[in-house]
Amino acid sequence: MHKILSLFILSCFLFFSCSDKKAKAKVDSGLMGETYVTQFGNVSMTLWKDLKRNGNDISLNGGENLKDDVRGISFSSDEFKINDLNYYKENFVNIGGKDDAQFILNLAVHLKRTDMYSNQVSIEDVVKGEYGHDLRTIQIRGKESYYDDNLCFLYATLQNGSKVALFQFVCHEKDMPFYYPELLKSLSSIQL
Q1: Which one, 6, 43, 51, 158, has the greatest CB density within 10 A?
Q2: Mean pLDDT for the chain?
């Protein structure tokens, strides 16, 4: 009985070890600007470094206008040609992260901090406590229509319960990120 139990545990360990897909990425340049694509299992995540929206401002939270240069995160189940995550790890050596998921979000935060959005509270301001709050958790909430796309938002939850939009990403009905609990779990556990 003990041997059977041991073999069962070993087989489960080998199964999950082999089925675990590390986050990998490619960097690509296209009409929307430079993108960073990574893979979590069967879910692809794209981080836009410079997303251009035909010269139009994008409105967040009913009136907070962003400049044309929009940095965001997109989730998709489409297939991508995946290369190595080491490209960004080698070029952003000071970002750090206990795993690939945290590195990716740290990278997004780093890119976000380089923006100069006059009408949006930045994550750097929140972390510094300039608004009297500390960043507590990160979560993905909401959906808004923008032409033929849906904009979802990555929020920071402050200690007083209010939320600050940090990033936006395009998501389609079939690719809504809360369909992927394993990815949300990784993001929600990250503390900046």
Answers
A1: 51
A2: 40
- Rounded to two decimals, the pTM is 0.25
Residue 165's closest CA among 76, 63, 75?
63
| Residue 111 dihedral angles phi and psi, to the nearest 5° | -65, -40
Residue 165's closest CA among 133, 122, 102, 111? 122
Residue appearing with tokens 């590390």? 22
Sorted by where each begins, the domain ranges of the chain are 16-188
Q: Residues 62-82, buried b or exposed e (16+ Cβ, 10 A)?
A: eeeebeebbbbbbbbeeebeb
Please name every residue paired with 75 in a beta bridge, in sequence order, or none if there are none. 45
> CB-hemisphere CA count at 13 Å for 1?
0
Q: Which residues pair with 156 in a beta bridge?
A: 138, 164
